[in-house]
Design goal:
106 residues, four-stranded antiparallel beta sheet, alpha+beta, 3 helices
Length: 106
Amino acid sequence: ARRASHQTAYVASGLAIDFEKRRVSVDGQEIKLTRKEYDLLCTLAQHSGQVVTHKQLLAAGWGSTVTDTQFVRVYVGQLRQKLEADPSAPKLILTEPGIGYLLSEQ
């Protein structure tokens, strides 16, 4: 059961997500994401500017039965490779150590 978001798109700092078409682009370039990467990115976007916990991200990507936060780290790493200008110095997906991640609105 997915919560329907009344938001149909997310646009901030060059990142654009079209929730209806399931399209993601950075500075106008369409980015191909796996389903899990997309689900995690959407969860971050729906809470942009707020920290989303590892647990929330696990539930979004894998359901509440998975508890290994390493999954989240790996996928956030993949998202950064695809979305960030410099993945080693992320400006979009920020880490909140020990808590989770935050999608920056800057």
